[in-house]
Amino acid sequence: MKTWSLVEYIRSHSLDWRKEETMDRLLEAIGDARFVLLGEASHGTSEFYSIRARITQRLLERHGFSFVAVEGDWPSCYALNQYIKSYPGAPESPAEAMKAFGRWPEWMWANREIARLLDWMKELNRSREQGRQAGFYGLDVYSLWESMDAVMEYLTDKGLMDELEKARQAFSCFEPYSRDEQTYGAAAAFLSEDCEKEVQALLQDMRGRNKAAQGDSEEALGAEMNAMAAANAEHYYREMMRGGPESWNVRDRHMVEALERLMDFHGSVAKAIVWEHNTHIGDARATDMKEDGMVNVGQLLREKHPGEVFALGFGTYRGTVIAGRSWGAPLSRMKVPEAAAGSWEELMHQAGSHDQLLLLDNAPEELYRRVGHRAIGVVYHPEYERGNYVPTVVPERYDAFLHVDETRALEPLVLQEV
Asked: Which positions carry the signal peptide feature in this UniProt record (predicted)?
């Protein structure tokens, strides 16, 4: 199929996202999936957040979904969970809850788009009894120190002195590294000075305690999840300093492990909505990640739960985005140039310069070829645009694709732009 006929296929089979019935068609396609993975082509695009919020609201309100799990750290996201469930002592507003995001890039979850979703979820939860309220959780693995602090705080508050002493012994191993991940990672990777046994033993203790309690509170679950995050973060930072794909794989395997633990906690009928970048939720086997020895959340879930996963990819032809020019740099509002010639985004644009949904379940054989598909990270250089395209077999990577032709930058809660 030549490029022009690919465009004709997209034009004749895509659905106008501006029409309400298109949302209904998407929900029909999702069907009985227990894991709905909602992607994004950047971490700084307003429409990717607002559209995912619309889809999430429908799934939570009308289709029995249990929680939202995102590409964020457990301790900071749990503050948002406390807010929407009106827990005693919980933050009183989204802005107050979002103060928990002290790690760069804060704008990923501390933004006005998420604040609006949180207020909607809080209102939804007012009508639901405890235990059936919709949750908001973080799946990521970066929170080594924050998660250790949270475990210690939980054990102290509960007066669990035996477990607290074990935790102190485990975490004392990390004291020489002054809460610096790279310092610890270098020592662990190159000097064999690691704390793996200590944090793994603590995790097993926390899991054993929760298992004995037979479905304890969400607070106890949180302590276990923080112990898991600390254990896997230790592994992640150790592998990160060694280089290669294994640190990526540790991170995505952790996110799947955390997600499955949440599903267990919410019971046999639980259903999850996952918000992560396309590079995590789209099947890695449909990209050059496979040749590089990398796996991701989308691939692992499809392998573990065949027939229960629906992945929706996102993309844009042009617009603006929030990102940094280096890791830890102040945020900038940057221009996203028109998509590269021959890319998936350009094909979608040629098919119609409007927002459109393409369901991929009956895609023709000719669509099963690799094309460049744009991926923008938290670090972005628009002037080097050609380096932002991932070779992708789109129908193998996603179950559907939502193209937003022109997008605008995310609205951080506190804008400190350069």
From this structure: none
CATH of 3-143+247-407, one of 3.40.1660.10, 3.90.420.10, 3.90.70.10, 3.40.50.1000: 3.40.1660.10
- The residues facing 315 across adjacent strands are 403
Question: Would you call the peptide bond into 105 cis, given omega within 30 degrees of 0 as the criterion?
Answer: yes
Instruction: With CA atoms as reference, report the closest residue to 87 among 119, 149, 130, 148.
Output: 130
What is the C-alpha to C-alpha distance for residues 106 and 374, in angstroms, rounded to an integer? Answer: 23
pLDDT in tens, 248-262: 999 999 999 999 999
Predicted confidence at residue 346, as pLDDT, reads: 97
**What residues pair up with 400 in beta bridges, in sequence order?**
312, 359
User: How big is the chain by its Cα radius of gyration, in Å?
Assistant: 21
Q: What is the pLDDT, as a whole number, of residue 57?
A: 98
- Residue 387's pLDDT is what? 86
Q: What are phi and psi of 260, to 5 degrees?
A: -70, -35
Q: How far apart are CA 151 and CA 128, in angstroms?
A: 29
Q: What percent of the chain has pLDDT over 90?
A: 82
Block means of pLDDT (10 residues each) for the chain, 418 residues, are 79 96 98 98 98 98 97 98 97 96 95 98 95 96 95 93 86 90 88 86 86 75 96 94 94 98 96 98 98 97 98 98 96 96 96 96 92 97 91 98 98 69
